[in-house]
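Form 7-S
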Amino acid sequence: MTSVLAAGDRFIRPALFRESVASATGDLVADIAELELLWPDQPFWSVGGVDEASGDEDSLIEALRGRDAIVTQLAPLTRRVFDACPDLRFIGVSRGGPTNVDLTAAAERGIAVCNVPGRNGIATAEMTLGLLLAVLRRIPMTQRTLEDGRWEGGFYRHDRVGFEVSGATIGLVGAGAVGGHVARILDAMGAHVIVYDPFLPEGVLDGVIERIDTVDDVFRRADIVSIHARLTPETSGLVSTERLALMRPGSYLVNAARGGLVDYDAITDAVVSGHLGGVAFDVFPSEPADFSHPLFAAARDGHNVVMTPHIAGASTQTAIRATEGVAAELGRFLRGEPLQHELTGALR
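Output:
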């Protein structure tokens, strides 16, 4: 009988993992132990050669030793942990990017590793729309005036009023699990949605988007650009001084993907100069954010800057989808069925 460790944290609680595993595996699992990691109350970090991990190797080894499987979001699954826990056969990572797992070491030991791609796609898409509407209609800026006890009639002046989604040309860089959902919502709201995504299969989003051949043309044509690309060496700094210069004066930019996709110095210059009408971000080049960056001063000085602390993917439903996804994979593994999202097969 299989023994499982549910190594949760304070977003995806250990008990939620345990309940999902019990429901998906039934009598195939003998017992499920719990370990609570401290993220997000403590930041994640690099541990033993893996990134974005919570906790430490020694505590994990103590909890995992003698167990066959682990379901987790952030536990540091390193080569040292594998060496100390030779019974481990299955790792279920409840996130899209399993940077907290040494995949090479897992594959060498024949440990199956799976993830849950798209678990937070809907949450991130909805948050993107929230950021977009907040910056277009200056919602945080106008709220601050009321908090200060001021009734600013000047927000009805022609040069200060907001911008509508309906009728706007909105450009998306990337149209996967997040961008595709954003595209459908924007289309339903009456926007003309243009997309640059060389990996988007033919036929997907037909009737919803106009495909664009180059990323530069998205910046040239759009009233609003929203970034949904993966961060790779090729896409790092994708939103640059040169691409911002292609945008129409008064345009808007939204980024709820990854901070490394954007040159934040260039963004600050563009919004302070008035070339951009506003910007909205959920992600930053380093996190926790560097509050000495001029972008924060620009926001305090009254420029149209909307910011949230990397919470786009955080929802009750995201946590549930994440645990149900890894639990379903564990059930398949124990029944000898193919995994839907195995990560180590190609390395073996």
